[in-house]
Amino acid sequence: MHIIIAKDKQDLGKKAAETVGMLLKKSPKANICLPTGNTPLPLYKELRNTFTNAEFTYIALDEYLGLDKHDPHCFSNWLAREILDPLDIPAKKRLLIDPSAAEADSEAKRHEKKITEQGGIDIAVLGLGHNGHIGFNEPGSAFKSPTRKVKLADRTRKANAAYWGGDINKVPHSAITLGLDILSSARQTILLVSGKDKADILQKSLAGPVAEDIPATYLQNMENVVVIADEDAASKLTQSR
Ligand code: F6R
């Protein structure tokens, strides 16, 4: 595991863009999954400003359930605004999850099958939840878990309420997430973490016992992982290294 420490969030964006840019230079047509959230915003800003000729295929990492696909809160629309539209990624190169799927389990299976047919995940860019979730694999998710419908933890809904005018009651209770099984097959994983509030969970994820109650600990058993953390998030990590 390679750990890169950035000075602050802006520097994290730069370093993440360098890493992603380098990988995409080697494999321009890579299949890449990207997270929503606060952490990757500086990366997307940097890529919008510096990246040209994007040819990658975007793979949805997770998506709320119970929304119309045009709802601006859908992760696919959020990512479209932040990165996919600005980089002109065509619709046929966006492997999305249908947030309005009536049969969530078959939608999850369809998505996973499509990824496999497409050649698997080349690059998984991930964020880290305060409870150690990866994608929406909440604590207790099996390391071999498939892509599936999940119930969102209260803490996750609380963290996401900011995108819903601060009203937790508006945040969906369920989602579809890529499972840890397919995520651990990614050829390259890049974990982005920023902020003091993530210092504890980052330390536990990278240096604590590998256990399903902290899903991110699966990364310890993987090769080709780059962690890019700002100094605040890495503060407890550096003490223990
Ligand atoms: C979102 C996702 C989540 C976030 C995580 C961190 O698509 O997969 O796992 O990456 O909750 O979110 P932020 O960056 O907002 O702290």
Question: Could you explain how this protein is built, in words?
Answer:
- Helix 2 links the parallel strand 2 and strand 3.
- With 241 residues, this protein is of the alpha/beta class.
- The two termini are 13 Å apart.
- 34% of the residues lie in helices and 18% in strands.
- It has a single domain, classed as Rossmann fold.
- The site of fructose -6-phosphate has 14 residues, from loops.
Short descriptors:
241 residues, Rossmann fold, 3-stranded antiparallel beta sheet, 10 strands, 34% helix, globular, binds fructose -6-phosphate
Quick gist of this model?
By secondary structure, the protein is an alpha/beta fold.
Strand content: 15-25%
Bound ligands, named by name, code or SMILES: fructose -6-phosphate
Report how far apart the termini are.
13 Å
Low-pLDDT ranges: none
The number of E-state strands comes to 10
Largest sheet: 7 strands, parallel
How many domains?
1
Reading off the top of the CATH hierarchy, the class is best stated as Alpha Beta
Strand order of the largest sheet: 1-10-9-6-2-3-5
